[in-house]
Design a protein that fits this description.
It contains 14 helices and twelve strands. By secondary structure, the protein is of the alpha/beta class. InterPro entries: Luciferase-like_dom (IPR011251), Luciferase-like_sf (IPR036661), SsuD_RutA_monooxygenase (IPR050172).
Length: 365
Amino acid sequence: MSQLRFHWGSALDDGQKKSTQQYASDVLDLDGAIEFTREADELGVDSLLMAQSFDLPDPLPIIGVFMRETRRLKFILAYRPGLLSPTLFTQVVNTFSWMSEGRISLNVIAGISPAEQAYYGDFLAHDARYERANEFLEILHAFWRGETPLTYEGSHYRLKDAQLSLGYHGGGRPEILISGASGVAQRTAVRHGDVWFRYADTPEEIAKSAAPVLAQGGRVGLRMQVLTRDTREEALAELAEVMSGATEERKKWVADFVATADSQAVHNSFRLADEAGHGWMSQVLYSGAVAYRGGPALCLVGSHAEVAAYLMEYKAAGIGEFIFSGWPARDEMRNFFTRVLPLVRELEEKEAASSPAAGASMPTG
């Protein structure tokens, strides 16, 4: 099995030191975000996830800036079908590919909140949004296969002789990640994507949900948090610090949001946290921050070595990549890529050396 890939959530607001803090969503510190991105490039982060939400700056212009400031780092553009026409969206992605020599991937999301979707004039129900996403992706794939002029007749999109002069840099297409926990999300990932991304669970449970996707040739990734220190005791002390100041008001706000969400992934993460008493789901997997931050806040907590070993358990369960975040985002990113990643690579080297394939290829003398 190939090496695990590690992505990170872009921090346009890097001021959060606690899991219960809200983002400074009314400002954009572009200089600070550029510094964060440059460091991610230097640290060897595979890709930065550029999220799309009403409480964040739009990722499209910001990705263009970041591409000019980096040399190796890739960018995962999270976007929802329905905001842009598929022709225009393909044009945007193709342009990014030329600006960066192909350092662009897509995270197609159907949306988790009908209330937020309505902000943008979108009133489709959950499964209908996935139907639209499938049409959207069919059109994108057709463009990248060179099927132009393209005429398309669907329930959600109609195109007549659509053409784009600028194709994807070098031919081909970007890598496509599909997020969600529902069956329709899995089917969309297998049909139109490369990776099915979901919120975390224990390795044992993840293995069960990942099996159908892996059996059909897809890949599986996890979105979660991470917090490691030299020792477990230090990690637990830091966890107590980032969880301090939690208020019932913030908890109620999140609970009210979840009540209106129609995302299976969101509801599933809160169910898991409830079942764990908003505490430990395993020795390393902590659910206490979910009540204040939502599904992505399931967090790996422990010593660098403990977390590295647990990541190998996920790998054994079929997981191939992770999108991590932390508190504060930049500090934890630096900590992970300088202290945890080397341990993961050592474990992977030992795994490869002890595999039957490695033994079969060794000279017998």
